[in-house]
Design a protein that fits this description.
Layout: E1 4-15, E2 18-30, E3 35-39, H1 46-53, E4 61-66, E5 69-70, H2 76-86, E6 87-91, H3 102-107, H4 118-128, H5 144-156, E7 162-166, H6 174-191, E8 194-198, H7 202-205, E9 210-215, E10 218-219
Parallel strand pairs: 3-8, 3-9, 6-7, 7-8
Antiparallel strand pairs: 1-2, 1-4, 4-5, 9-10
Helix pairs in contact: 4-5, 5-6
This protein binds adenosine-5'-triphosphate.
């Protein structure tokens, strides 16, 4: 069984007369419930890979299948809903909506996905990340670690097929980063969610089952 499949993926960026080839022929798959870490030098294409998996940018050739759905076959108009329903995101910079409180931020995916009792579920998730006393705080009224815990709750509320995490502890001090990663892995294990995590930290990568190095367009 495979939840994410990357087939002969090709991607280059074109800028004036030059082109930067990121992937020539990338093949890769992730099994359901697997936790994968991706490391690699700056500029090796880690963020590009996450953007391709999220459908934010398109491949030049090849295909990506998430839970059997081919991105090639998705219409442009379907991709946003597909992403919102199937993928959860945790970013280095949290990406919370500044004018929504913690509870409302966690409930956001419910606007696109059919979630029963979203408010109850959001409260439950916020409780499980230790933030039951911060429900009506705006992001500006939360600490970095608290913001990331809100983002983790939001990433999980719709039971996504996969979580994409980009340096989730990158903006946190060491102790807070460890506490936040503990929560992320605890919830991911509880829900048996698949994780693809980009990180520069060996300690963070070691929490995953497999670590790949992105080098010269290949995952090794
Ligand atoms: N939109 C774009 N247009 C042109 N070149 C780009 C674009 N986005 C990224 N690149 C180039 O593609 C290469 C890969 O970038 P990417 O952001 O995927 O690397 P990364 O491995 O995530 O790096 P880092 O660890 O520094 O975040 C880099 O050389 C970058 O300059």
């Amino acid at each position: 069984m495979v939840v994410l499949e990357i087939k002969s993926l090709k991607k280059a960026y074109h800028q004036s007369s030059t082109s930067i080839e990121i992937f020539k022929d990338l093949n890769f798959h992730v099994k359901p419930g697997q936790k994968i870490a991706i490391m690699g030098k700056s500029g090796s294409g880690k963020s590009t890979l996450l953007s391709l998996i999220s459908g934010i940018i398109k491949a030049d050739d090849g295909d990506i299948l998430l839970d059997g759905t081919s991105y090639k076959q998705l219409e442009e108009s379907q991709i946003n809903d597909f992403r919102a329903s199937n993928i959860g995101f945790v970013f280095q910079n949290f990406h919370l909506v500044s004018y929504l409180n913690a509870l409302e931020n966690v409930m956001l995916p419910a606007k696109v996905c059919n979630i029963s009792n979203p408010k109850e579920k959001a409260k439950e998730l916020l409780k499980s990340v230790g933030l039951e006393h911060r429900l009506d705080h705006l992001p500006s009224q939360l600490s970095g670690g608290e913001k990331q815990r809100v983002a983790i709750a939001r990433a999980l509320i719709h039971n996504p097929k996969i979580i994409l995490a980009d340096e989730p502890s990158g903006n946190l001090d060491e102790e807070t980063g460890i506490a936040v990663m503990d929560k992320l892995f605890e919830l991911i294990d509880k829900n048996n969610t698949t994780l693809v995590l980009v990180t520069h930290s060996k300690e963070v990568a070691l929490r995953c089952e497999k670590t790949y190095e992105l080098s010269q367009g290949n995952l090794v």
